[in-house]
From TrEMBL:
Species of origin: Arctia plantaginis
EC supergroup of this enzyme: oxidoreductase
Family that this chain belongs to: Belongs to the quiescin-sulfhydryl oxidase (QSOX) family.
Extent of the signal sequence: 1-19
Name recorded for this polypeptide: Sulfhydryl oxidase
Entry-linked SUPFAM superfamilies: FAD-dependent thiol oxidase (SSF69000), Thioredoxin-like (SSF52833)
GO biological process: protein folding
Catalytic activity reported: 2 R'C(R)SH + O2 = R'C(R)S-S(R)CR' + H2O2
Key word Glycoprotein present: yes
Keywords for this protein: Disulfide bond, FAD, Flavoprotein, Glycoprotein, Oxidoreductase, Signal
Cofactor list: FAD
Length: 567
């Protein structure tokens, strides 16, 4: 009997498993800054179309870059909002897409995402098509303000005839209680009248929060209505429970907030033995401290690895420069300038140089390129000149964070440009150093996916007169000073990796001779230290076995020489 049953069960079981796989095709549990437990839809290029187009509900999509500091500090706020609006899921859902993931790039290009993070509102039954890239929603600093921006957007959607299955977010003037009930369906037992200012979002938020309450409605009533006089209300917002038999009961929430209003309404309903909707509590997964066990706490060094430089270069060429819908004029020139300094000063091994030169000369042949054409070109040339990079799975070594949300690409970009200024300076008969600064300025301005970083950097460049730098060694020091200025600003910031605190570089312990009395810098020593770290001869081939000796970038001989020079 048992055996027969289990045999019978097998094909059904397989069928179930198969269909589950098909339904969730392309879904991932974790990507970039978000994971399954965050109550947002993690969008990827494999599930995007299925989750975005033709849906009954609207969507608020956040396009972000996992390495942008602003995106990292925004993530907790977005998650906080997502938790608060999970019950709105039949009306609107929140989605996130990481534009720093190469395979998602095409979508970010299609949606013309140029700033990170960007919020776009996509109405229900959205269709794929040219120019359908959603509508901008303002980013706000607090989850509350974010939510009120979203509600304002949803209100205007209803005015234009959309979101019709959602509760009404519209505010009206009423002259009597019966006028309110006349506007409602017959099966409503209680209406909660929220008397408020047109600009208040409390009523709308309550309506959305209670969207799945059966036989209940939230009705927004303008504070200037005749009804306010009838109810003798002097302070707004106020809330009145109105039964279908038109008996009004004025309620007294403790505070003029949504939470307080909702609490009052819920206790009122409870006292009336109301049956609340059953809600899915969601999975409360325990978030483990990722890769903390494999993270080598002893690897705390200034050493630069080829792997860091190559991974940064590859990311920049694969995902950053390909982001434009169309590239022409100043941005295209900025790209050429960037490639130019890479060709002259990147400490390349293998075929990187030939590859970059080919890319440069091909790009030069035309005045306009689309992002997808550049992406194709980059990939084709990479295959043609293979192997361009040392390994297929490049990893950050110097720039590895103690958790995936820290360090990475932005650290790589600093490392890359320091390396370029230092190596440009080693050629005595050229002024490639200032050219690197100019190229960096153009790159950051036009391509760096961290929007707030780019803005800060441009302001600093203007202040510190980046274009007035005329000598190679000044270029090296200019960038060192600029980076220290950023370190100072970001010290203690949420984006700071606790294992790699933002210090004034180099640290006292790494370079005692870099500092003079009373904290003044010894510039020749700093200059020498930068040569020792970023000079082509000192770039590390591969991961060293981690011993305490690896903590110093100098061999014993170097240290001896340094003390001779700077005693
Ligand atoms: C152009 C630019 C602008 C940025 N602006 C912002 C911003 O406005 N807001 C924001 O949140 N983040 C910004 N970032 C990111 C931020 O600076 C860090 O890259 C990020 O926080 C990761 O820090 P990190 O610990 O890896 O060290 P990073 O600051 O990325 O430094 C990488 C490595 O360089 C070395 N180093 C440090 N200081 C110096 C120096 N003065 N000279 C030479 N080498 C040094 C150290 O070994 C360090 O580990 C910006 C990044 C770039 C490239
Ligand atoms: C609502 O907000 C708008 C825009 O901020 C403002 O102009 C208007 O006066 C406000 N209305 C009321 C009634 O407060």
């Amino acid at each position: 009997m048992n055996i027969r049953r289990s045999i019978f069960c097998i094909p059904m079981f397989i069928a179930l498993v198969n269909s589950a796989v098909i339904v969730n095709e392309g879904d991932v549990d974790q990507q970039g800054l978000y994971s399954k437990s965050d109550r947002v839809d993690i969008l990827t290029n494999r599930n995007f179309e299925r989750k975005i187009y033709g849906q009954k509900h609207a969507l608020l999509v956040q396009f972000y870059n996992s390495y942008c500091g602003h995106c990292r500090s925004f993530a907790p706020r977005f998650k906080a909002m997502a938790t608060e609006v999970t019950t709105w899921k039949n009306i609107i859902r929140l989605g996130v897409l990481d534009c720093s993931v190469e395979e998602n790039n095409e979508i970010c290009r299609q949606f013309e995402v140029m700033a990170y993070p960007s919020l776009r509102y996509l109405h229900e039954f959205y269709v794929k098509g040219n120019g359908n890239i959603g509508e901008k929603v303002h980013i706000a600093d607090s989850p509350e303000k974010l939510k009120s921006n979203l509600i304002t957007k949803m209100q205007s959607e209803q005015v234009s005839g959309r979101l019709i299955t959602a509760p009404s977010l519209h505010i009206d003037s009423y002259s009597s209680y019966s006028a309110v009930f006349k506007s409602l369906p017959h099966d409503i037992n209680y209406a909660f009248l929220v008397l408020e200012n047109v600009n208040s979002t409390i009523g709308s938020e309550l309506a959305l929060d209670m969207n799945d309450y059966q036989h209940i409605r939230v009705v927004r009533v303008s504070e200037t209505s005749e009804l306010s006089n009838i109810a003798n209300i002097k302070q707004f917002p106020a809330v009145i429970a109105l039964s279908s038999t038109l008996e009004p009961i004025l309620m007294y929430p403790k505070e003029p907030t949504k939470q307080s209003f909702l609490k009052a309404i819920n206790s009122f309903l409870k006292s009336r033995n109301y049956v609340f909707p059953v809600r899915d509590q969601g999975s409360q997964e325990i978030i483990t401290n990722e890769n903390s066990d494999e993270y080598p706490a002893t690897l705390n060094t200034d050493l630069v690895y080829y792997s860091d430089l190559e991974k940064t270069l590859k990311t920049s060429l694969h995902t950053e420069i390909t982001r434009f819908k169309s590239l022409t004029g100043e941005p295209l020139q900025a790209l050429l300038d960037y490639l130019d300094v890479l060709i002259t000063s990147f400490p390349s091994r293998g075929n990187v140089k030939e590859y970059l030169m080919d890319l440069y000369t091909t790009l030069k042949t035309r005045k306009t390129w689309s992002g997808s054409e550049i992406y194709e070109l980059v990939n084709n040339l990479e295959t043609e000149h293979a192997p361009v990079y040392t390994t297929n799975n490049l990893e950050y070594i110097r720039c590895k964070g103690s958790q995936t949300k820290f360090r990475g690409y932005t650290c790589g970009l600093w490392t890359l440009f320091h390396t370029l200024t230092v190596n440009a300076a080693q050629k005595l008969d050229t002024t490639d150093g200032p050219k690197v600064l100019k190229a960096m300025h153009g790159y950051v301005k036009n391509f760096f996916g961290c929007t707030d970083c780019a803005m800060h950097f441009q302001a600093m460049a203007a202040r510190n007169r980046i274009f007035d730098v005329k000598e190679n060694d000044k270029a090296v020091l200019w960038l060192w000073i600029a980076h220290n200025e950023v370190n100072l600003r970001l010290a203690g910031d949420v984006t700071e990796d606790p294992v790699h605190p933002k210090i004034q570089f180099p640290s006292v312990s790494r370079c005692p001779e870099c500092r003079l009395a009373r904290g003044a810098w010894n510039l020749p020593a700093v200059y020498q230290y930068l040569q020792n770290v970023y000079g082509a001869d000192n770039i590390q081939m591969m991961r060293r076995t981690i011993t305490s000796a690896a903590a110093s970038p100098f061999s014993n001989l170097d240290i001896g020489m340094l003390s001779l020079l700077y005693m």
